[in-house]
Amino acid sequence: MKVAVTGATGFVGSRLIQRLHREGHTILVLTRNTTFAQKVFPSGAFPNLEIVAYTPTQSGSWQSAIALCDAVVNLAGEPIGEGRWTPERKQEILNSRKLGTQKIVEAIVSANPKPTVLVNASAIGFYGTSETATFDETSLSGNDFLAEVCQAWEAEATKVKDTGVRLVILRFGIVLGNGGALAKMIPPFKLFAGGPIGTGRQWFSWIHVDDLVNLILQALTKPEIEGVYNATAPNPVRMADLSHSLGEVMHRPSWLPVPSFAMEALLGDGAIVVLEGQKVLPKRTVETGFEYRYPNLQSALKEILK
Known about the structure:
The chain is an alpha/beta fold. It has 11 helices and 13 strands. The protein has helices at residues 11-22, 34-40, 87-110, 145-158, 180-190, 209-221, 239-250, 260-267, 272-275, 283-287, 297-305, and strands at 2-6, 26-31, 49-53, 71-74, 117-123, 134-135, 166-172, 174-177, 203-204, 206-208, 227-231, 237-238, 279-280. Strand 1, helix 1 (11-22) and strand 2 form a beta-alpha-beta unit. The longest helix has 24 residues, at 87-110.
């Protein structure tokens, strides 16, 4: 296949590109920063990869490149866990997803021939936060800021179905691997100062990055896969259990809690992601027959930290 990918230089995107390359697919990388993309994906190592500059929230000549692709994977979006959520920052987070997806769909609508499938990222923030509820793909949306962002994001992606293009929306949990959220949690443990964040009772719904990449590939290649799927492992844990497992795997203590006010001082409103959390089960994902390589946290952490 020829696959167009946005967000390709990010933590998940770069892992996906490596896998697509290994499997012999041709790749179109849509990026705001071509110089950086060329460093991440040098032409000598990635001969079947083309880099096209684009402005995610604006129409442009880049959209014509979509016409030559069999599939599109849309992973682009401003990071939610970096910096305080000022009103301007919240607008950036929303626009990068809502307008970014709108412009991708616009490109697909005008493409001839059209790609056959759009795999669009979303997030389990769709469900809102809770210490007691359990969510699956049939659950209603929450009503906080992240839930509203996910609703707007998915609503734009859904418009692609009017053109007969198959749509798969993957609601990402917290992705574990060499980077992302785990990269921020490991340094305190190395310094023997690790421990649960906040109360420790909040749920942590996670997925190993390799399982996520496999899920994206399944969505690309299996025509019967359509609609919304939770991209989480089948065994979510509470934050205290995550800290305990991380300490065990790293042979470090895990008793020094990170107080909520410290996270709020660092992240502002963004602290809600780690301080409140939600228990999300991948019911539809499991029903497809998808086989997780890392269904349990301990095995995932051991692989990542080996």
